């Protein structure tokens, strides 16, 4: 069975915010499927999706030559392969290692947390077709350090990869704790995962023995689907991880909506946020479900992030913008708003950054 959220547990921080007047709770339609409760959600018809993908020009221009990709998007060996003794040794700081797409290894408060793990070559239910990554993972699952928790944002194949889940479970077993949105625990358990905590928006839980860190499922504007008949039967979300000394926000996969201001009011400021910046063209398809760089900066502002890591770009061919456009537009957006562009940064695949509370720009 899935672990129950620690609602009402003795704590200085409440673990259930759903009764607060200023938060947007999850909602379902008459068929029991989850819906996006914001006016910013306007998902196009399948006819419109097909028309735009067929008629709009694909400007992604991803090089076929490995040399060009190595030059523009280098893959570096993560620090933890050569220096495993340094893992988890961050004190009151937060360290993030980008492992590609939305997969980030986060170290905070002595815990090692992995977000939306995908180590497979394709974001697909099958190995012979579907989006194929053009930048390999910088490490294997066997090379990962000890993990305490994994957070999953939603069920799309580039965020919930069955092979990666199975491999992580095979390696870490019951020592690994999985935090997932409503409706996903059954799938996780069928995959073999044991310690699964399924949460609604604005509800939090903890890992036994680590009462100083709470994992809150928070809203995002997106959708779920893995089969022809399971549309939105599971919830999607972001994650707000709140510790005694540090706070981390994982946006997952999202369009822009009003709830990011709510998240900032309740859980901000965050020492670090991981926010998507890619897969936003054709805009007529992507706007409701994927933020562009300018909207990513607005999320950075809304959640009151002291620093943000750009994710969801440079790994899979999912959209039509030039493959190097997202970080360029991100920097331009920060500058245009008078913000320090180094406060919303990109990393090479496998690269780490330590977010020190005294020095926000020191690198590991």
From TrEMBL:
Record: residues binding Zn(2+) 2: 158-159, 253, 312
Cofactor note: Binds 2 zinc divalent cations per subunit.
A Pfam short name: Lactamase_B_2
Membrane topology of this protein: Peripheral membrane protein
Residue numbers binding an N-acyl-1,2-diacyl-sn-glycero-3-phosphoethanolamine: 157, 290
Assigned keywords, A-Z: Acetylation, Endosome, Golgi apparatus, Hydrolase, Lipid degradation, Lipid metabolism, Membrane, Metal-binding, Nucleus, Phospholipid degradation, Phospholipid metabolism, Zinc
GO CC terms: early endosome membrane; Golgi membrane; nuclear envelope; nucleoplasm
Residue ranges crossing the lipid bilayer per the database entry: none
EC numbers: 3.1.4.54
Location in or out of the cell: Early endosome membrane; Endosome membrane; Golgi apparatus membrane; Nucleus envelope
Annotated catalysed reactions: N-(5Z,8Z,11Z,14Z-eicosatetraenoyl)-1,2-di-(9Z-octadecenoyl)-sn-glycero-3-phosphoethanolamine + H2O = N-(5Z,8Z,11Z,14Z-eicosatetraenoyl)-ethanolamine + 1,2-di-(9Z-octadecenoyl)-sn-glycero-3-phosphate + H(+); N-tetradecanoyl-1,2-di-(9Z-octadecenoyl)-sn-glycero-3-phosphoethanolamine + H2O = N-tetradecanoylethanolamine + 1,2-di-(9Z-octadecenoyl)-sn-glycero-3-phosphate + H(+); N-(5Z,8Z,11Z,14Z-eicosatetraenoyl)-1,2-diacyl-sn-glycero-3-phosphoethanolamine + H2O = N-(5Z,8Z,11Z,14Z-eicosatetraenoyl)-ethanolamine + a 1,2-diacyl-sn-glycero-3-phosphate + H(+); N-(5Z,8Z,11Z,14Z-eicosatetraenoyl)-1-(9Z-octadecenoyl)-sn-glycero-3-phosphoethanolamine + H2O = N-(5Z,8Z,11Z,14Z-eicosatetraenoyl)-ethanolamine + 1-(9Z-octadecenoyl)-sn-glycero-3-phosphate + H(+)
Molecular-function annotations in GO: N-acylphosphatidylethanolamine-specific phospholipase D activity; zinc ion binding
GO biological process, one term: phospholipid catabolic process
Predominant place of localization: membrane
Domain Metallo-beta-lactamase: 113-313
Cofactor(s) demanded: Zn(2+)
Residues reported to bind Zn(2+) 1: 154, 156, 222, 253
Assembly information from the UniProt record: Homodimer. Bile acids promote the assembly of inactive monomers into an active dimer and enable catalysis.
Function of the molecule: D-type phospholipase that hydrolyzes N-acyl-phosphatidylethanolamines (NAPEs) to produce bioactive N-acylethanolamines/fatty acid ethanolamides (NAEs/FAEs) and phosphatidic acid. Cleaves the terminal phosphodiester bond of diacyl- and alkenylacyl-NAPEs, primarily playing a role in the generation of long-chain saturated and monounsaturated NAEs in the brain. May control NAPE homeostasis in dopaminergic neuron membranes and regulate neuron survival, partly through RAC1 activation.
PANTHER family found in the cross-reference section: N-ACYL-PHOSPHATIDYLETHANOLAMINE-HYDROLYZING PHOSPHOLIPASE D
Family: Belongs to the NAPE-PLD family.
Name of the protein in its database record: N-acyl-phosphatidylethanolamine-hydrolyzing phospholipase D
